[in-house]
Amino acid sequence: MDLTGPPQPVVVTGDPELLSRVHAVTATLAVQPVLVDQPAEVRGAWASAPLVVVGPDAAADVVGLRLPPRRGLLIVGRDQDPAAALRHSAVLGAAVLTLPSGAEALAAAVGGRGGRPPGSGRLLVLTGAGGGVGTSTTAAALALTAARDGTPTALVDLDEAGGGVDLLLGAEQQEGWRWPRLAGARGFLGDLRGQLPVVEGVDVLSVARLPSAPPPLTAEAVGAVLLSLLRSHALVVVDLPRQPAVGAAEALRQADEVLLVVRADVRGVAAGREAARALAPACAVLRVLTRTGRRGGLGADAAAEALGLGSAGVVPHDPAAAVAAERGEPPGRSARSPLARGSRAVLDRCVPPVAAA
């Protein structure tokens, strides 16, 4: 296996018929993928390859390698046996395609080498250490602040029991897709821009308010949607419920960084300690984002030190945010507000300059 020279897509399969179908797609793009017919050999290319395509025949062996999570991972099977392609997709966190019907989607994935330019598509997940800490408001403010600074940004609502982040933003009457439209998503999705409501430059994917509760979001749907958004946006901010379901847990798995929103007092830190204990095994990076109340409270460093975690900063209490919510206006709309200033400081810590450019 020659991995020298410019990075190329890697195909892991020993199935000659499947390989022939994959080559038929890559040849139209003048791309010559690297073939790995022994799954153990993919270790050397796992981190550097722009795209890894795994055949169902090799998927179980790749699972057994216990490699770290990565983006740009596809399981590509045959139309005649989609179940084989899906069997290991959740544990690998891989999108799924079948051929020949998925040839166009595979071409799009190969043509974009996974679709994510180096340094872009950062996934920032926020979850609260207790009720009423303002996680949704903070997530929305971070997204709006980033967009105001020129960063292509999406905001994703995964709180299926909540009222919908579009309501918080005053966008509940805007046309556009909500989660019910994408609940069956899996595999490779196209560009979602133009399909979602837009609030002050932020593409918003919200849960919907329906007469009866829809089925829970699946890991496949959440994974497919997040990967699509990460290809087209430099920053994706996710509002996660306190107790992530299966779909929301996929966001934790994919996250570049998880911010645990903690109230800046003794009870808040105690709740944060329990939440951090549950979250830490599922997170690549977990930091504390401190929310102060009307009377201030513990500083960011004090709260983070008490929890034994790094600090993402402080978002101060902003009385105007509650007023804005009642008026149906986005939080932190004024760049001079305490919420917007605090959000910018958090973004400076958590989003590398290349992603914010």
TrEMBL record:
GO terms under biological process: negative regulation of cell division
* A Pfam match: Rv3660c_N
* TM ranges: none
Instruction: Give an example GO cellular component term for this record.
Output: cytoplasmic side of plasma membrane
Q: Which GO terms describe its molecular function?
A: ATP binding; ATP hydrolysis activity; helicase activity
Domain of life of the source:
Bacteria
Q: Which residue windows are coiled coil?
A: none
**Residues in Rv3660c-like CheY-like N-terminal domain copies:** 12-114
The protein's UniProt keywords, in alphabetical order, are: ATP-binding, Helicase, Hydrolase, Nucleotide-binding
Q: Record's InterPro entries? A: P-loop_NTPase, ParA/MinD_ATPase, Rv3660c, Rv3660c_N
Q: Which PANTHER family match?
A: SEPTUM SITE DETERMINING PROTEIN (PTHR43384:SF11), SEPTUM SITE-DETERMINING PROTEIN MIND HOMOLOG, CHLOROPLASTIC-RELATED (PTHR43384)
How is this protein named in the record?
Helicase/secretion neighborhood CpaE-like protein
| Phylogenetic classification of the source organism | Bacteria, Bacillati, Actinomycetota, Actinomycetes, Propionibacteriales
